[in-house]
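task queued by scheduler; priority normal; single chain, no ligands, no partner chains; default sampling; output format set to structure tokens
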Amino acid sequence: MRKNIKPIMFLALASLSTMAFSGDIQSPSAEGAKAYIISPADGAIVGTKVKVVFGLQGMGVSPAGVDKKSTGHHHLVINGDKLPALDKPMGGDVKHFGGGQTETTIELSPGKHTLQLILGDHLHIPHKPAIISEKITITVK
């Protein structure tokens, strides 16, 4: 009997993993929840080292891997032409803050840059509906 337990457990986990990563399981967002960038302000002129402070209203921040209702962690899109898939785990095209960080300092080259936040659940999947900040544009001198 012991030999049969492992394959069944493996199949159950594999099935759950497939559902989670195919968008079948998305954490619900709280009604009215909002992500926003506190600083820098849209249109700001900044130096090459930019402190970005994240804002979140209507939900809480928790580290990746912690499955707690109405929480998530931030992901920062830098110079993104388009958003990542909103029903799959976010990958390398975004900067992850899985430790539950609410600010960071990034280094950017001189010129115009865009910044945008997306809240991800414990599996790095955007909530449903997705909590996405407005895209801001900054100029680095």
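post-processing summary
- Residues 2-21 form the longest helix (20 residues).
- The chain has one domain: 2-140.
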